[in-house]
Amino acid sequence: MTTTLITGANKGLGFETARRLVEAGHTVYIGSRDAERGRRAAEQVGARAVLLDVTDDASVTAAAKTIEADGGLDVLVNNAGVENRTPDGGVVGAAEVTADAMRAVFETNVFGLVRVTHAFLPLLRRSAAPVVVNVSSGLASLARVTAEGTPAYGYPGVAYPASKAAVNMVTVQFAKAFPDMRINAVEPGYTATDLNHQAGVQTVEQGAEIIVRMAQVGQDGPTGGYFDAEGSLPW
Ligand SMILES: NC(=O)c1ccc[n+]([C@@H]2O[C@H](COP(=O)([O-])OP(=O)(O)OC[C@H]3O[C@@H](n4cnc5c(N)ncnc54)[C@H](OP(=O)(O)O)[C@@H]3O)[C@@H](O)[C@H]2O)c1
């Protein structure tokens, strides 16, 4: 039996990933920073709910204790993420971005991901087939963001792509340090969720595809890579 934790899984891509992994036979914990939203989401798909705010040490430690007491963890999907937008939904570009805005995004997308991974490492190391999926973004790719004429080139935001580029580096360094684990970064593609005020062009079913696939990667599968549904991406 495979036990899987997905952070920020009360809605969006994380929720769809939870639904699909329950269907695939995993015991799934829906991590949610709000107890009631997590409980309702878990009930809908036959998952378990665990209170987990990735920015809060005590919350992450308590979640790790709960899951350890229930028997441990095989798969960690670091999905919780935020993007800083103006109140009317606009992207904050280089002319407006502040250190505080950067810090707020890094707090969840980067430090939160490291906090959760660090707390669950002892559990993952006890698994026979440990897997970590870090939900990154196509905007993390320096190659893409500098390819003139592409949508990634045209995206003016600073904090979000910088945070996801950091997620990619964290992925590579953890993958090298733990060769017995499969640790990969994935790009779901531009998906209609609350993160982008439902402006994405894909459905959550399409977006979750690569997350679900990498959560089920075998021990002979890739590690330290960066993938979307079509294959490997340039860093
Ligand atoms: N949608 C896209 O086009 C797209 C593209 C590439 C990558 N991604 C990535 O995909 C992941 C999922 O995003 P999404 O599009 O599904 O957005 P979403 O619907 O806004 O979901 C984000 C989830 O993260 C949770 N979250 C935020 N801060 C948290 C915290 N401090 N602790 C725990 N959970 C927290 C949210 O919880 P609340 O409900 O409590 O806010 C929510 O459950 C993110 O990492 C995002 O960067 C999305």
Automatic annotation (TrEMBL):
<dbReference type="InterPro" id="IPR020904">
    <property type="entry name" value="Sc_DH/Rdtase_CS"/>
</dbReference>
<comment type="similarity">
    <text>Belongs to the short-chain dehydrogenases/reductases (SDR) family.</text>
</comment>
<protein>
    <submittedName>
        <fullName>SDR family NAD(P)-dependent oxidoreductase</fullName>
    </submittedName>
</protein>
<keyword id="KW-0521">NADP</keyword>
<dbReference type="Pfam" id="PF00106">
    <property type="entry name" value="adh_short"/>
</dbReference>
<dbReference type="InterPro" id="IPR002347">
    <property type="entry name" value="SDR_fam"/>
</dbReference>
<keyword id="KW-0560">Oxidoreductase</keyword>
<dbReference type="InterPro" id="IPR036291">
    <property type="entry name" value="NAD(P)-bd_dom_sf"/>
</dbReference>
